[in-house]
Structures are given as C-alpha cells and as structure tokens.
Write a structure and sequence with these properties.
The chain is α+β, with helices and mostly antiparallel strands. About 30% of the residues lie in helices and about 30% in strands. It folds into three domains: about 40 residues, no CATH class; about 190 residues, DNA ligase/mRNA capping enzyme (D-amino Acid Aminotransferase, Chain A, domain 1); about 130 residues, Nucleic acid-binding proteins (OB fold (Dihydrolipoamide Acetyltransferase, E2P), Beta Barrel). Strands 11, 12, 13, 14, 15, 16 and 19 form a seven-stranded antiparallel beta sheet that branches. The chain has a five-stranded mixed beta sheet with strand order 1-10-9-2-8, with helices on one face. The protein is globular, with a radius of gyration of 23 Å.
Length: about 375
C-alpha cells in the first residue's frame, strides 16, 4: 500500500514511509500525498503518547570499520543489553513504551519518577532500562525483562531488583519534533534536558585507539559493546538506518546439528532452521541449546540439505532428525537461562559462521564449555 501511495502521488517511498510511521492512518497519508505531495507529508510529526518504532542499527565488525563507514568521525555509546524504552512526558503525565510499542508505565515506577523530575514540560526521549546489582553492574537481559514485563507486586520487585535508565536520544522537546534534525543537534538538546547520570556514556572521536579503549571500558563494565552513530543522521524511526552501527563481542561455539526444519519462501525445499546441541559428558547425551537459520548462504543451504538427508534418522511434518555427525561454528551474543531446553540454557542471537568439516563431533564443544561461558558472563552457575 505504501508503494502504491508513493507511485500514485509521485513522492519517494521513504517520504511516504516516514509519514505513515507518524500518522498511523494510511488514509490520511494517501490523502496528504495526493493533494500536497512531499510538502504535505512533511507535516506529519512525532506526537506525544503516540509511540513510534525505534531506530535500529546495522552491524559493524569493529570500531575501525564503524569509523570508516561513518566518514571518519562518530559518536560511540555503550551498548547495554537492557530493554529499549521510549519515554513520553507532558507535565506530570508520563508514559513508557517498549520497542514493540507496548505501554509498560506501571512496571517501571522509578523511571516514571525520574522522568517527572525533568524540567521539560513536554518531552520524548529514547533510551535503555536495565536491571543493576548493588555495585551498579548490569544483570543479564532476562533478569531485566522480569521487571519490564511485571504486572503484579511491582513495588516488591522494585526493592529487590532496581532499574536504571540511560538515555541516548531526544526526539521531541516542547512542541518541536527533533526526529528530522541531525544526531549532533539531538545530542545537544538531550544533554541540556537530562542530567549527566542518566545519559548513556558517549565518546565523539575520530581516533580508532580512543574508540577501542572506550569499547574495552564498556565490556569491562559488563555491557555488550558499542553503538557508533553518524553525527549528521536524522532519526529514522522504525528503520535500520545506515547512520547507526552496533559493535558487539560475539562468542563462538562448535556445536553439533541435531535436526533441521524445512524452509519457507525462497528456502522452500531446503532444510534450513538448525537444531543445535552440545554433548553433556555426564550423561553421554546431546543437549539442545537453540535453533538458528541465520547466516546460511545459498551454497550452504544446498550442501546441508544434501548432507542432512544422508544422515536422517526419522522425521515429522516439519523436521528431519539427524545422526549427530556434523559440527557447525556458531556465533552468538550471550547465553540465557531457559526452561525451554533440558540443559537450562539457550543461545541468544545465534548465527552460523561456517561448517567445521575439519572437526569430528568428539572435537566439538561440550556442555562444560557452554556452562563456563554462562558463568563468566553472569556469575551464575548454569544448568
């Protein structure tokens, strides 16, 4: 429909998508485009208490790549593994929304109180809520989500699991939407509006060495890595804009393929979604840790479908189960506690890097290695 509006009105697709993000009414967007073109679409702005999908980031391998892609200078921010929040404030009325646009105001009373204390009468700010321990270090993502998704006994949870909020963007101040302004301008407004303790740590630099030191500091503080942002980019609500890059430390494990699910769409007829596991030496059984279809090239899909079918033991409607003979190297952001899998742990944001045809299953990582990673990242025994 958006493409049809753009074609009929002879307005660019991005202009139509931007207006639709703010308007929430395609009829109004179509009418404005047909009657007033780009100028009329430009009048749609971010409104208080009508949340928009957050701007997202692409991935960069390291700080050097990020600096190169962003023109030699960038704003680097700590990347926290918390819950993305969009805070809307008008006088004493505060609403907090998740990245999925759910209203979680009642679950986050301490952040509501902090927002009410800000001097601005009308404000929309973008940030991260994260559960912290007594030393101020972050808890794992799933611990934070216990608070964000809480509906009952919020005050009791608040005392035992406090939340901190760190803000990194300002989308509206007073009656003025700032989303179309440059990152540099939005930073200046944010710094004048939010106290320093509530700002996401940031370094603006053209130095790879300084950015690398900042990256190391983020990891040492228990966070995921860095965000790198163009100083000139507007806020592209709902889009994975070229102006934002994420740089994360990725763990890798050599795991065994236990099964695979048939693909859909362009992957129809190919075995795609991998069931990944590691041997538990204590039981001699393979323990499933999660699934992924990410990172697979067309050539890998062709190869693995052929190899999997040669190792099939049985199947159901969607899944082919295999002899545990193939080893695959998988990158992932972290491990999280999970009641879904027997081992009590699950991979987060897993992606296939390559098949290790040079390795036998005896050389693959075991559950002992998996548990060591979990303990190192969280300080909590897994399994």
């Amino acid at each position: 429909m958006l493409e049809a509006i753009a074609t009929a009105s002879r307005v660019s697709g991005p202009q139509v998508r931007r207006a639709a993000m703010y308007a929430r009414d395609l009829g109004a967007v179509a009418q404005a485009a047909l009657r007033g073109g780009a100028e009329a679409l430009g009048k749609f702005q971010l409104e208080l208490f009508l949340p928009v999908a957050p701007m997202l980031a692409r991935t960069a391998a390291d700080v050097a790549t990020a600096l190169r892609e962003l023109g030699g200078v960038a704003a680097f921010e700590w990347k926290m593994d918390g819950a993305r929040i969009q805070v809307h404030k008008r006088d004493d009325e505060v609403r907090i929304y998740t990245r999925g646009l759910n209203d979680v105001t009642a679950a986050l009373p301490e952040i509501v109180e902090r927002a009410r204390s800000l001097p601005a009468q009308a404000l929309i700010i973008d940030g991260e809520a994260i559960a912290v321990d007594a030393a101020g270090r972050p808890h794992p993502f799933q611990i934070t989500m216990r608070r964000v998704g809480r509906r009952l006994d919020v005050e009791a949870m608040r005392s035992g699991l406090p939340l901190a909020a760190f803000f990194f963007d300002c989308l509206r101040l007073g009656e003025q939407s700032l989303a179309d302004r440059s990152t540099r301008e939005r930073f200046e407004v944010l710094a004048a509006t939010v106290p320093p303790a509530a700002l996401m740590p940031r370094l603006v630099t053209e130095s790879e060495a300084a950015a690398s030191d900042f990256y190391d500091a983020a990891l040492a503080a228990g966070h995921e890595g860095l965000m790198a942002k163009s100083l000139e980019a507007p806020y592209a609500a709902g889009n994975r804009g070229a102006g934002w890059l994420k740089i994360k430390r990725a763990h890798t494990l050599d795991l065994v393929v236990l099964a695979a699910e048939w693909g859909h769409g362009r992957r129809s007829g190919k075995l795609s979604n991998l069931h990944l596991g590691a041997l538990d030496p204590a039981t001699g059984e393979y323990v499933m840790l999660g699934k992924t279809f990410k990172g697979l090239t067309d050539a890998m899909l062709e190869w693995q479908t052929r190899e999997f079918l040669e190792r099939e033991t049985h199947r159901d409607r969607w899944t082919v189960y295999l002899k545990p003979e193939l080893v695959v190297e998988v990158a992932f952001s972290d491990l999280q506690a999970s009641s879904r899998y027997p081992g009590g742990l699950a991979l987060r944001l897993a992606r296939v890097k390559r098949y290790r045809t040079d390795k036998s299953t005896a050389e693959a990582d075991t559950m002992e290695a998996v548990r060591r990673i979990y303990v190192a990242q969280s300080g909590t025994p897994g399994g």
